[in-house]
Amino acid sequence: MAAVIDGKAVAEDVVGRVKVLAAELRAGTGIVPGLAVVIVGADPASQVYVASKGKKAKECGFHSVQHTLPADTAEAELVALVETLNADPAIHGILVQLPLPEHIDSGRIIQTISPDKDVDGFHFVNVGKLGTGELATAFVPCTPAGSMLLIERLRGRDLSGLNAVVVGRSNIVGKPMANLLLAANATVTIAHSRTKNLAEICRSADILVAAVGRPEMVRGDWVKQGATVIDVGINRVAAPEKGEGKTRLVGDVAYGEAAERAGAITPVPGGVGPMTIALLMANTLVSASLAAGRPRPAF
Ligand SMILES: Nc1nc(=O)c2c([nH]1)NC[C@@H]1CN(c3ccc(C(=O)N[C@@H](CCC(=O)O)C(=O)O)cc3)C=[N+]21
């Protein structure tokens, strides 16, 4: 049976370090890390995530602001808000919650965020740095960065000789995850919905990362004996066994089956999700430290 990777505990560990470093920064320079979260529209799931980001930022001793804009906000207005935040010296991290309403070009909004405040790591400058291995100065997207910290704790920082398979090719998770694994010397395959022999390719993985957004798509017999399985999926599905209209969260991996073969596996919830928020705090602390002219803290 697989060891369960306690993402919540590792996230608390990361947040604990952020708190200490934020207090040191404040004592040494008077600078308080500032995080601005922008949400457009009232999607209930998005509001829950945004609230937990604000709560965690306060817990870290950060200056935390939230801008909630109506769903019909014009693109130009959102651009103007981002430009104001870019120019605000009290703000070191800007996160515009995705997805945005259809009438707004999210690419344009992301590229408006100053690369120095792009704690999501979505700006071309940060994507390019990650792609060229300039990890020492990049902001790396929080979900892959958090997943990588979990992998590091289990398998070390050097993944030479190990096969890693990433299922999913999004700009937010799949592609940056593959780049991080490659930077750690793993042999990396990116698989996706059009891949032939998906099960067979997954079975070659010593490290299997599932980020497809399809509930329980990765089955137990896709998992190599002893593999490290990182489940990035968060899918809300009906749970009639809990009562009428009830739901539960499942990942992109069929957990019970996969746990019989994996060496270690992340649960959902309590795996990658808490790490995503912890790395957002870490990125904001890094940004504030750099703005203060201090060396970049490592996580
Ligand atoms: N610009 C942008 N950056 C993001 O990082 C971003 C975003 N937009 N849009 C939405 C997604 C989603 N996301 C999550 C973060 C934490 C949990 C999390 O903490 N989940 C917990 C609890 C889940 C629950 O109970 O609902 C867990 O997995 O244990 C989940 C999802 C960040 N996102």
UniProtKB/TrEMBL annotation:
Homodimer. Residues 5-120 form the Tetrahydrofolate dehydrogenase/cyclohydrolase catalytic domain. It catalyses: (6R)-5,10-methenyltetrahydrofolate + H2O = (6R)-10-formyltetrahydrofolate + H(+); (6R)-5,10-methylene-5,6,7,8-tetrahydrofolate + NADP(+) = (6R)-5,10-methenyltetrahydrofolate + NADPH. Its EC number is 1.5.1.5, 3.5.4.9. Residues 141-289 form the Tetrahydrofolate dehydrogenase/cyclohydrolase NAD(P)-binding domain. NCBIfam families: PRK14188.1 (NF010785). GO terms for molecular function: methenyltetrahydrofolate cyclohydrolase activity; methylenetetrahydrofolate dehydrogenase (NADP+) activity. Pathway: One-carbon metabolism; tetrahydrofolate interconversion. GO terms for biological process: L-histidine biosynthetic process; methionine biosynthetic process; purine nucleotide biosynthetic process; tetrahydrofolate interconversion. It holds the Pfam family THF_DHG_CYH. It comes from Kumtagia ephedrae. Belongs to the tetrahydrofolate dehydrogenase/cyclohydrolase family. This is Bifunctional protein FolD. Keywords: Amino-acid biosynthesis, Histidine biosynthesis, Hydrolase, Methionine biosynthesis, Multifunctional enzyme, NADP, One-carbon metabolism, Oxidoreductase, Purine biosynthesis. Gene3D superfamilies: Leucine Dehydrogenase, chain A, domain 1, NAD(P)-binding Rossmann-like Domain.
